[in-house]
């Protein structure tokens, strides 16, 4: 499991494969100087809540991978995540579903 770190203050643990796809999407949006909402939640039976942040190129994000092997990226998955990031609700992930 890797870690996505937002503004050095918020850390989310994610599977390395998902983290790689997230990095590709965030990188693509930031290259275009685009900001967007990013939220994640957990299945209802876990008792965990949902978090939403505003991602903007002006705020530091970090991607820390558990392994040194780069994840294999799926273009269709990246395209689907980008389409969601471009929607009014932004990119929404359910972790552990």
Helix and strand composition category: alpha+beta
As laid out across the biggest beta sheet, the strand order is 2-1-5
With helices defined by DSSP (H or I, 4 residues minimum), what is the helix count?
2
- Number-wise, the strands total 6
Shape: globular
Q: Ranges with pLDDT <50 over ≥5 residues? A: none
What is the first-to-last residue Cα distance? Answer: 15 Å
Share in helix: 25-40%
Element pattern in H and E: EEHEEEHE
Quote the beta fraction. Answer: 25-35%
* Mean pLDDT value: 92
| Whole-angstrom Rg | 13 Å
- Largest sheet report: 3 strands, antiparallel
What does this structure look like?
The structure is a single chain. The chain is of the alpha+beta class and 97 residues long. It contains two helices and six strands. Strands 2-1-5 form a three-stranded antiparallel β-sheet. A three-stranded mixed β-sheet has the order 4-3-6. Helix 1 packs across helix 2. The longest helix is centred in the N-terminal third of the chain and has 16 residues, at 16-31. The radius of gyration is 13 Å and the shape is globular.
List the helices and strands and how they pair.
Blueprint: E1 2-6, E2 10-14, H1 16-31, E3 36-41, E4 51-55, E5 61-64, H2 75-85, E6 91-94
Parallel strand pairs: 3-6
Antiparallel strand pairs: 1-2, 1-5, 3-4
The gist of it:
The chain is 28% helix and 30% strand. The protein is of the alpha+beta class.
């Amino acid at each position: 499991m890797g870690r996505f770190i937002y503004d050095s203050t918020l850390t989310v643990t994610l599977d390395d494969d998902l983290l790689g796809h997230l990095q590709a999407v965030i990188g693509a949006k930031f290259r275009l100087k685009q900001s967007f909402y990013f939220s994640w939640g957990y299945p209802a039976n876990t008792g965990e809540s949902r978090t939403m942040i505003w991602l903007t190129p002006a705020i530091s994000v970090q991607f820390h991978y558990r392994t040194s092997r780069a994840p294999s990226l799926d273009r269709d998955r990246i395209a689907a995540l980008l389409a969601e990031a471009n929607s009014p609700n932004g990119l929404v992930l359910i972790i552990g579903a």
